[in-house]
Design brief:
Blueprint lengths: L2 E4 L3 H12 L4 E4 L11 E3 L7 E3 L6 H5 L1 H6 L8 E2 L3 E6 L5 E5 L2 H7 L3 H12 L2 H8 L10 H14 L10 H11 L9 H14 L6 E2 L5 H12 L3 E3 L11 E4 L5 H6 L5 H9 L5 E9 L15 E4 L3 H12 L9 E4 L15 E9 L8 H11 L7 E7 L1 H7 L15 H5 L16 E3 L13 H15 L10
Parallel strand pairs: 1-2, 1-10, 2-9, 10-16
Antiparallel strand pairs: 3-4, 5-8, 6-7, 11-14, 11-15, 12-13, 13-14
Helix pairs in contact: 1-10, 1-17, 4-5, 5-9, 6-7, 6-9, 7-9, 8-9, 8-13
This protein binds flavin-adenine dinucleotide.
Length: 476
């Protein structure tokens, strides 16, 4: 075997597809019984007609990523439906802030739309430049320097005490809620970086949901891998180095277990110092009907940020970073059936996807806390709940070894990780272990279903190990 990819998340599969298309023999070995990593879906155990997304649910990066654009998910039957409303943020007074695909409509409905327009207007006109910066390899010159500067200035401003330059409590909450997709204290460039990138996508490609569940994305990658001679093995956690070149879609620290004493001592030391961030508690509900939000506009939004005001979110993120549970934890919500009615079963039951930020390793079941937060924003919510299933942070690694302590960002929610990588190296997809490479979201450009870390890792492997300089075409 020329290349073994350890782990079948979107980055691992992206790397595998590229290597297979370059003519190499490729095997993907997945530790879990099913493939797809953070992009899997599974039927509800009690109501199998209801499909839950086990991890990721909403995919602006699936539309925006240069890897997926060339791979062409649509041509492979993956339908990403982006509704008119991208995301909403209920506020304690019963109103909500709403981000639409339309920047104009968003600005019209905010208290101070001009301020929101100053933040996003120039970026939405140059979305490719914004993506070139955020999804770039952080080693090459970004393709659009003026846009990179504009985006960078906004990240710095909104990631510092100058974040009050954004006017209006509603707009502040709206922006900060998006930023919390990167779990960090705030203001910080990590939070504002996520806010600027995902916020720009909300007003351009939108925040889509895949018809038939997120699993459609890895399934398309696996089909392409197989059609180019690649193999997939599931249910076999890798515990020893495979033969030949290995690309790890794992947490960097997994290399310590797999290579043991063969890890060069300085690198071993750096890996032992590697820190994971706070965790998440995932709660999947099955509902009998539509949620009666106090602000009815929220009912059109497949993504909802249930964190309250900017101050409430900042407090909650500070608490969990300090190892304490927040009274009002940042909670992310997805209602995929609003874009994909096929998720509703023949009895009208539908999935509600939520996760709340908690301290690393928390064993707490936050079902009741999350239910209480819904009751505040949508009285009567409790009566809709048909069933619920909780995976506490301490158990997240049982279904994906990368989520140590429940950290779904795999230690990547720092500026260092976003720009440099998991350890200090010129090329973050390499390791000093011969023939061992990293491709997971712990390497740039970080978290999300975009496949770009896999793309950069495969590019490195093809060049360094096989002398292949030109990347293969990815179109179907
Ligand atoms: C609850 C949750 C919600 C999310 N929501 C979104 C969202 O809406 N949109 C979005 O874009 N992103 C979202 N994300 C993030 C996204 O899922 C990840 O960033 C993305 O899946 C990372 O891809 P990856 O290939 O790097 O790793 P993963 O997808 O995590 O895949 C890694 C794979 O490696 C396997 N593995 C690990 N160790 C071994 C081993 N030793 N042997 C064999 N196999 C191994 C794991 O089982 C796993 O299958 C979410 C994540 C979570 C957990």
């Amino acid at each position: 075997m020329d290349v073994t990819v350890v782990g079948s998340g979107p980055n691992g599969l992206a790397a595998a597809v590229i290597c297979a298309r370059a003519g190499l023999s490729v095997r993907v070995i997945e530790g879990q019984p099913t493939a797809g990593g953070g992009a899997r879906s599974a039927p509800d155990p009690e109501f199998p007609g209801v499909l839950h997304d086990v991890c990721s649910a909403v995919h602006p990066l699936g539309l925006a990523s240069p890897f997926f654009a060339e791979f062409d998910l649509a041509a492979r039957g993956v339908q990403l439906v982006a509704p008119e409303t991208s995301y909403a943020n209920p506020l304690p007074d019963g109103t909500a802030a709403v981000a639409y695909r339309s920047l104009d409509r968003t600005c019209e409905e905010l208290d101070d739309g001009a301020s929101w327009r100053r933040l996003f207007g120039p970026l939405t006109e140059h979305v490719d430049g914004v993506l070139g910066f955020f999804l770039g390899d952080k080693r090459s010159l970004p393709p659009d320097l003026p846009t990179t500067v504009r985006a960078g200035l906004r990240v710095l401003t909104q990631g510092s005490p100058a974040w009050s330059l954004l006017r209006g409590e509603d707009a502040r909450a709206l922006f900060t809620g998006v930023g919390t997709h990167a779990i960090s204290t705030m203001p910080s460039p990590v939070n504002s970086g996520a806010g600027v990138m995902l916020g720009t996508l909300a007003h351009t490609v939108g925040w889509p949901v895949p018809v038939g569940g997120t699993q459609m994305i890895p399934d398309a990658l696996i089909a392409d891998l197989r059609s180019h001679g690649g193999e997939l093995v599931v249910g076999e956690p890798v515990t020893a180095p495979p033969e030949g070149v290995a690309i790890y879609d794992t947490a960097p620290t997994a290399l310590l277990d797999i290579y043991g004493d063969a890890v060069p001592s300085r690198y071993a030391k750096a890996l032992r110092r590697y820190r994971f961030g706070p965790g998440v508690c995932k709660v999947d509900f099955v509902l009998s009907g539509e949620i009666g939000w106090r602000d009815t506009r929220v009912g059109q939004s497949p993504t909802v940020h249930l964190g309250g005001t900017r101050a409430q979110m900042a407090l909650a993120e500070r608490e969990i970073a300090a190892g304490r549970h927040a009274e009002w934890p940042m909670t992310l919500v997805a209602l995929p059936h609003l874009a994909d009615p096929s998720r509703i079963d023949d009895q009208g039951r539908r999935p509600l996807w939520t996760y709340a930020h908690v301290p690393s390793g928390s064993t707490a079941d936050l079902t009741e806390t999350i239910t209480g937060m819904f009751e505040d924003a949508a009285p009567g919510f409790r009566d809709l709940v048909v069933s619920s299933h909780c995976v506490p942070a301490s158990q997240m690694s049982h279904h994906n070894a990368n989520y140590v302590g429940g950290d779904i960002i795999v230690g990547g929610a720092t500026l260092f990780a976003a720009m440099i990588g998991p350890t200090l190296r010129m090329n973050p997809w390499t390791t000093p272990i011969p023939k061992a490479y990293l491709c997971s979201s712990a390497t740039p450009p970080g978290t999300g279903v975009h496949g770009m870390a896999g793309y950069y890792a495969a590019r490195t492997v093809l060049r360094k190990e096989f002398g292949i300089g030109a990347l293969p075409k990815l179109a179907p």
